[in-house]
Design a protein that fits this description.
Structural class: alpha/beta
Mean pLDDT: 93
CATH superfamily of the largest domain: tm_1862 like domain
Strand order of the largest sheet: 1-7-6-5-4-2-3
Number of helices: 13
Low-confidence stretches: 1-14
Shape: globular
CATH class of the largest domain: Alpha Beta
Bound molecules: S-adenosyl-L-homocysteine, iron/sulfur cluster, FE3-S4 cluster
Oligomer: single chain
Number of domains: 3
Radius of gyration: 24 Å
């Protein structure tokens, strides 16, 4: 197999829809569809594709765009890798585990390809933005047919066409930072709740993190494009949106006419028909009082703040390049609790960063006890090639990381349970998402504080706001009775 390797370096900034790019995409979707129609006529069925998505909502969103393109190109969908003629892995690089899974799956597909030589394998997403991964796949996984990165997703039809017509391994990874391409279609998975990207990339370079290398520099979408997208979603039945970015608090800085995140929140709050607005992720160094005031003042903004602390030790936070101290963080929480008394908090916590001492772990536990998080995502530090932390001294042994992780988790879980218990006999507003299990009258939904609530009902209130009295709180969800 030969490699077509096009490594484009471009600094072009694209702010609005470029009709040319979309036209080219359309042309290639047509070309592939024609090839697939011929294929289908010979085989008596359409080719079948599976997209396996790892990682965060950025990837979920990208997969929805791929899904749209694949449908247009005449593919049927499956969830089962063993049924597929085309397997696409949309990969994540944030921790080693996520990468290991992909390599494991590639190993299995090597076997399947022996009995199904027509099987095509494509890999995209964050792993592919790392040159050492591309080298590894080119060298040791020659059965892969197509590799592309996060910046050139919209070119997928053209790349797929090239692969099909040449039968060579096609590799295209761009090193671009500045593009925002508007007007791409996507197949949204779930209508009631939708994720809306407000910005891409990250400028923060936390010393442990690969994201700035895989997603490029921070760039914001124009507020009008965001508002238009949400209005369109609402017209199709969406009731809740989560505004997404790696650091939403620095939204708008790269725009020609800068807009702050708090201003954007107030604009989104005006959209008629929308019931709830959430956002993530907030970097503590950039959160302004105005964002907290917006949550206080705007009826649609949910009383829920995901504010990743990572760790409670000021000296370790410095080594992480986070730009805030333990005290700065606790001050933000104090302010938020004062302005919005029923605010719920969640966070990301990392255990085992190089050089972490037991005092540092205690600082983290202090923060957990002071904030009292509703929920926390706890991660064990994973060495990422190319990041500064990977070269730091005093890496913590795996076993010790796990011991500390369990210690911290105990505090997180205990507090979660205690907060749930505080809901007993309280009446909460629930946005009903649907049945929790098929063939039952049990429904599930979320409170404004993002707690899961389950209740029985003979009537289907999916998509509506109902009032539920909590009768049986559990650690991670609340059971109750509908009171309307
Ligand atoms: N932009 C977001 C987080 C994106 S990644 C923020 O700044 O909060 C999600 C979480 O993964 C991070 O908050 C961090 O806790 C975790 N993470 C990132 N890199 C990691 C690594 N090398 N090892 C373990 N966890 C990591
Ligand atoms: Fe990674 Fe830090 Fe950027 Fe979050 S803010 S994506 S943790 S570099
Ligand atoms: Fe998301 Fe993983 Fe990439 S967390 S941005 S898919 S590295």
């Amino acid at each position: 197999m030969e490699t077509i390797d096009i490594n484009k370096k471009s600094k072009q900034r694209q702010k609005t829809l470029d009709p040319m790019k979309l036209e080219v995409q359309e042309q290639y979707m047509d070309k592939v569809r024609k090839i697939n129609e011929k294929w289908a006529a010979e085989k008596g069925r359409k080719p079948v594709v599976v997209i396996v998505t790892f990682g965060c909502q950025m990837n979920e969103h990208d997969s929805e765009e791929l899904d749209y393109m694949l449908e247009r190109m005449g593919y049927d969908k499956t969830e089962d890798v063993n049924e597929a003629d085309l397997v696409i892995y949309n990969t994540c690089a944030v921790r080693e585990n996520a990468e290991k899974k992909v390599y494991g799956n590639l190993g299995q597909l090597k076997f399947r390809k022996r009995s199904h030589p027509d099987l095509k394998i494509a890999i995209c997403g964050c792993m592919i933005q790392q040159p050492h991964v591309v080298e590894e796949i080119k060298k040791h996984h020659k059965h892969v047919n197509l590799l592309f990165g996060t910046h050139n997703l919209y070119r997928f039809p053209e790349l797929l066409h090239k692969q099909i017509t040449t039968d060579e391994m096609v590799v295209e990874v761009w090193d671009v930072d500045g593009e925002v391409i508007e007007g791409l279609h996507s197949n949204r998975k779930f209508n009631l709740k939708a994720f809306v990207n407000i910005m891409y990339g990250c400028n923060n370079f936390c010393t442990y993190c690969i994201v700035p290398y895989t997603r490029g520099r921070e760039r914001s979408r124009e507020p009008q494009d965001i508002i238009d997208e949400i209005k369109e979603l609402v017209s199709r039945g969406t009731k809740e949106v989560t505004l997404l970015g790696q650091n939403v608090n620095s939204y708008g800085k790269t725009l020609d006419n800068p807009v702050t995140f708090a201003e954007l929140l107030r604009m989104v709050n005006e959209i008629e028909g929308l019931e709830r607005v959430r956002f993530m992720t907030s970097h503590p160094k950039d959160i302004s009082d105005e964002v907290i005031y917006a949550i206080r003042d705007c009826d649609k903004l949910c009383e829920f703040l995901h504010l990743p602390v990572q760790c409670g030790s000021t000296s370790l936070l410095k080594k992480m390049n986070r730009h805030y101290s333990k005290e700065d963080y606790l001050k933000i929480i104090e302010k938020a609790k004062k302005e919005v008394p029923d605010m719920a908090f969640s966070t990301d916590i990392m255990i085992g960063f190089p050089g972490e001492t037991m005092e540092d772990v205690q600082d983290t536990i202090d923060v957990i006890e002071a904030v009292r998080y509703d929920s926390a995502f706890t991660f064990i530090y994973s060495k990422r090639e190319g990041t500064p932390a990977a070269k730091m001294e005093n890496q913590i042994p795996e076993e010790e990381k796990h011991r500390r992780f369990d210690m911290v988790l105990e505090h997180v879980n205990r507090i979660s349970g205690e907060i749930s218990e505080e809901y007993r006999d309280k009446v909460v507003e629930v946005l009903v998402e649907g049945k929790s299990a098929k063939d039952s009258n049990r429904y599930t939904g979320k409170t404004r504080q993002n707690k899961t609530v389950n209740f029985d009902s003979d009537e289907d209130f999916t998509g509506q706001l109902v009032m539920v009295k909590i009768t049986d709180p559990k650690s991670f969800s609340l059971n109750g009775e509908i009171v309307r």
